[in-house]
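Hi support team,

I'm opening this ticket because the web form for multi-chain structure prediction keeps timing out on my end. I have pasted the exact lines I submitted so you can reproduce it. The total is 683 residues across two entries, so I didn't expect it to be a heavy job. Is there a limit I'm missing, or should I split the entries? Thanks in advance, R.K.
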Amino acid sequence: MNSGKTILIFIGLSAALLFLFVADILTGPVNISPGKILSLLWGNHTGDPALGTIVLDFRLPKALTAILAGAALSVSGLQMQAVFRNPLAGPYVLGISAGAGLGAALVILGFGSFFSLQQVSTLGSWLQIIAAWAGSGLVLMLIVIVSLKVRDIMTILILGILFGSAASAIVNILQYFSQQTMLKAFVIWSMGSLGSLSLRQLHILLPCILFGLIMALLLVKQLNAMLLGETYAKSMGMNIRLSRTLIFISTSILAGSITAFCGPIGFIGIAVPHVVRLMFNTSNHRILMPGTILTGAIVLLTGDIISSLPGNDIIIPINSVTSLLGIPVVVWLVAKNRRLSTVN
Amino acid sequence: MFEEKINIRDLAVGYNRDSKITSQLLSQLNLSCKKGEITGLIGRNGTGKSTLLKTMAGLLPPLSGEILINNQSLVSYDRKALARLVGFVSTEVPAVPSLKVIELVSLGRYPYTDWTGRLTQSDRDIIHQSVKQAGIENIADKSVSEISDGERQRAMIARALAQDTDILILDEPTAFLDLPNRFEILRLLNHLASEKEKTIIFSTHDLGIALHEADTIWLLHNKNIVTGAPEDLILNKEFIRLFEDSTLDFDDDKGEIRPKRFYVLKSGLKAEGQIRFWTAHALERLGIEIVNEDEDVNISVEVLNGKTVWNLVDKKNRLLAHSVYELCLFLKSIINQKV
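Hello R.K., no limit was hit. The queue was backed up. Here is the completed structure from your submission:
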């Protein structure tokens, strides 16, 4: 592909992102005229204060969260696919999201009572996000340890699913023993939502995701070298252990942070990188990485718009929307690559 | 000229599985490679060829002893410096669907580019040169998954060339390739050694190719390595030893491997030149020993009305064969009667 076409796609993606961002703010259960919203966004706060609250405190953070979550989950999927050299890898499939969920659940259900209303507590939010990082990091470490012994990619994927199920099982036990108020908060969390973040939580989420994404951008050269497998990467002078650790830290921060605040959001991580590969027709992460950030944000903004389409206060859980969008892509992938077995 | 690039002293190689268990495959190796020389490492499967090559490429730590590259110990080089000195091509086939050949070759610039991996003009020039040297310009824009095995091997070699190293180590570069491709790859390596003064070490179990194209052979047998020009090793009867415990034999006159024969019949053969050679070739296959004095069975070749015919005479019959195939059919029936 020539560079002119690549630039054209990037311009198209950026335009689509901007358009969908505005469209996401325009849509919602309450009907507000576009003109009013634009003037509110422009800083004109005269008029109905309730409308201002809806737009500025609810829709704007939700749209920003959609962008952050879409980019973060897709990038972590891209990283996992490169490290495990497996087209079916992703934070959800490998159980990384479930690990993060376990960490978050421990905080929401276990320690939640200490921080009364965790929604308003900054400390509680930080605890929740750090616990999610630890949970996702733990699952990643388990997968790495197993992948040292087992080379077969399908086995590793199945083990990832098992680790994820184990984490979910522990969460179920926790639910059984927890107080009702905490349980309700947890059930809402577990359905996955982009709209439940307070501005305070967004203030925590934004720097974390930016940090994770910048780290990912700094690691594109390593991801490229990993395409050929560890032997080649090492023979070209790469420090495998360091690079892999850095990539895992980035993935844990990205997938962990989003899962901590938005709950599990599936299949974005697997599907988006493939769509981007198809679009740009390349395996070069210097192009794939920014492409994945943009496309991930676009896909989740679209998902968010779809989730509020029914109107009348009904919102479909975002996890259902992304699953229904992502699973066809995964099915297509499996059908296309019948020979997915071992790569090493 | 004759500058020593690689010096191996008392090297032991193997895998360090745990701190307790080490599986040592080869030990007390003392070897060297000169600049611009192409060395073929030959040995049976599972004798440690790959392990030795990986150790020489710095991918595995030596169990003991040392490897000197340009008179400096390999382990003392930092990663980047070593990657600019030694290139490695393994048997691994990268299964990256949307990776283009040119992108694959560009990956070889890894030790030279900055942290972003951006290619400078001089990087691009070297990538272009490498593609040209490996003879894969016509497939540069194709995806790695669309090209043939031979082309993929060339692409992997081009990637190693883009790494711009003095030393090139290749593990089984001709595995999975058909005969013309095998010779093409070796000719490419030979060219790189003689024209670009690269020091090349490759492993193979394809004896014929190694004998034709290598300057030096490292013959790995019974945990020991014998070195020399291929011709030296033939003259010193080293190759025959390689097949002692197998069903194969090495023909010192022709420089080729053949199955060990147990003769079931003796025959005289009166023929000249090419016809004699190929008739003997067929007799050999049937387990017939060719002897000089007249035996129970005799074959003589003559030209009858411009056509070659084989006269087969034994105690009972006198048969006329019009092709080697017919001759073989007659001989088989004679052998069957004997048995």
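A quick check on our side: Chain A is about 75% helix and 0% strand. Let us know if the file doesn't open in your viewer.
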